[in-house]
């Protein structure tokens, strides 16, 4: 366990602030936006990264997963911004100086505005665009990086498709992201406004929009192309992808439905992961299914702010299932809960790390655990209304205040 990576994760758009060239910045400004509030300065991690990284060091953590914002690096198609590359070079150097292993995500949901105008994640052009961006970053920063996640939750577009189908039937569903479905009429008006805002496109295809089967495949093609291009530049890089996985549990004859759900979430991606160096596993809860489909959480189950069931046992279950089907190292790139009661997060961490230790004892190659998230931040369409962080932030002053759970990671791991 000495080389185990223990740390936390963030996403650039959720913490940096003022990612004005990104597609979600456009979506936030719409008159009928689905975003409950605007991201603004977020938690100003763009300027305060050194303070945040030093806090991780002080808490005994040794790894930090963060993303590079594509729209900062390539604000216009084919034009790369040297100043932004230098910024991320400084972030990487700060990690190294503080004994923190950086785990870099090349795409965490947000994309350049120009990409959406070009057809976004339903256009075949995205494969080459993403490959070229990743190759450029690897050429510039590869000497300071080791672990790279190409795409965060590559199956999220397919999960969004499922959400929209289910939403149309007025049923509940577990979705591991902050999506606002409270105002369907405003949502539809907002979609029309978004088409106009992106230059009159026929459809807006951000990474968090529902996809076609072809669009789902494009993501994996983009992953493979980017992985191979970065390897060609920097053979030492360990490269993988992350998927959002539920602990799918069948009840009352739901075995076939559970198998279908798992195939959609995980199994059908396996052919595209065989050359990866590790797998990024992201899990928050379980999903119960019967022969008719998904079921709500048990009536008396504790729930988080996201309305997930509080079920920390899910992570160990999913680790074991993934390992049974994919024989490469597993890195837990996200796992956590949204709650104002930090004692719940402390208990959650104790349970999940106990499960990770049991997996290691059974010689399952788990190489790290990165908690979501380092700080309370911008939870996409739900704004700042959800508290996933190990550190709270007073956004009026941007003052950081570590919670007890921040120190619980190393405490539980060393017990």
Describe the structure.
The protein has 415 residues and is α/β, with parallel strands linked by helices. The protein has a single domain (5-414), classed as TIM Barrel (Alpha-Beta Barrel). The chain has 14 helices and 13 strands. The chain has helices at 12-15, 23-29, 45-58, 70-73, 82-97, 113-117, 125-141, 156-168, 184-197, 213-233, 255-265, 313-325, 342-361, 404-414; strands at 5-9, 63-67, 101-107, 147-151, 238-244, 247-250, 278-282, 286-290, 293-295, 330-334, 366-372, 391-394, 399-402. The strands form 3 sheets. An 8-stranded parallel β-barrel has the order 1-2-3-4-5-7-10-11, surrounded by 4 helices. Strands 6-8-9 form a 3-stranded mixed sheet. The protein has a two-stranded antiparallel sheet with strand order 12-13. Helix 13 links the parallel strand 10 (330-334) and strand 11 (366-372). Helix 7 runs parallel beside helix 10 (213-233), helix 12 (313-325) runs parallel beside helix 13 (342-361) and helix 13 runs parallel beside helix 14. The radius of gyration is 20 Å and the shape is globular.
Number of strands: 13
What is the name of the CATH superfamily?
A: Glycosidases
The main pleated sheet reads as: 8 strands, parallel, barrel
Tally of discrete structural domains: 1
How far from one another are the termini? 12 Å
Give the low-confidence spans: none
Share of residues in helices: 40-55%
SS content category: alpha/beta
SSE string, helix = H, strand = E?
EHHHEHHEHHEHHHEEHEEEHEHEEEH
Q: Mind telling me which CATH architecture this is?
A: Alpha-Beta Barrel
Pfam family, one: Glyco_hydro_1
Organism: Eisenbergiella massiliensis
Protein name: Glycoside hydrolase family 1 protein
InterPro entries: GH (IPR017853), Glyco_hydro_1 (IPR001360), Glyco_hydro_1_AS (IPR018120)
């Amino acid at each position: 366990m000495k080389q185990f990576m223990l740390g936390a994760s963030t996403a650039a758009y959720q913490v940096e602030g003022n990612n004005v060239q990104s597609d979600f910045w456009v979506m936030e400004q719409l008159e009928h936006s689905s975003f409950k509030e605007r991201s603004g300065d977020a938690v100003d991690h763009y300027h305060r990264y050194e303070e945040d990284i030093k806090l991780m060091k002080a808490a005994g953590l040794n790894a930090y997963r963060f993303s590079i914002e594509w729209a900062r690096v390539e604000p216009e198609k084919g034009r790369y911004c040297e100043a932004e590359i230098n910024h991320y070079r400084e972030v990487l150097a700060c990690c190294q100086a503080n004994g923190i292993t950086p785990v870099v995500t090349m795409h965490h949901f947000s994309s350049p505005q120009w990409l959406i105008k070009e057809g976004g994640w339903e256009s075949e052009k995205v494969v080459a665009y993403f490959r070229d961006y990743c190759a450029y970053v690897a050429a510039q920063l590869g000497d300071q990086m080791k672990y790279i996640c190409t795409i965060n939750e590559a199956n999220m577009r397919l999960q969004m498709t499922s959400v929209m189908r289910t939403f149309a039937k007025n049923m509940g569903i577990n979705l591991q992201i902050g999506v606002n479905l409270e105002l369907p009429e405003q949502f539809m008006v907002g979609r029309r406004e978004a088409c106009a805002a992106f230059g009159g496109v026929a459809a807006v295809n951000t990474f968090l929009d529902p996809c076609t089967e072809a669009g789902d495949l494009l993501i994996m093609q983009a992953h493979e192309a980017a992985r191979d291009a970065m390897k060609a530049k920097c053979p030492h890089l360990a490269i993988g992808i992350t998927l959002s996985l539920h602990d799918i549990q069948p009840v009352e004859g739901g075995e076939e439905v559970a198998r279908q759900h798992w195939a959609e979430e995980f199994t059908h991606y396996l052919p595209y992961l065989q050359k990866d160096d590790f797998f990024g596993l992201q899990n928050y809860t379980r999903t119960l299914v019967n022969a008719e489909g998904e079921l709500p959480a048990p009536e008396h189950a504790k729930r988080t702010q996201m309305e997930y069931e509080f079920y920390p046992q899910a992570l160990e279950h999913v680790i074991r299932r993934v390992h049974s089907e994919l024989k490469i190292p597993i890195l837990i790139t996200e796992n956590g809960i949204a709650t104002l009661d930090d004692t719940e997060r402390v208990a959650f961490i104790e349970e999940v790390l106990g499960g990770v230790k049991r997996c290691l004892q059974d010689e399952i190659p788990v190489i790290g655990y990165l908690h979501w998230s380092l700080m309370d931040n911008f939870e996409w369409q739900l704004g700042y209304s959800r508290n996933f962080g190990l550190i709270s932030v007073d956004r009026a002053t941007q003052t950081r205040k570590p919670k007890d759970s921040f120190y619980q990671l190393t405490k539980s791991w060393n017990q």
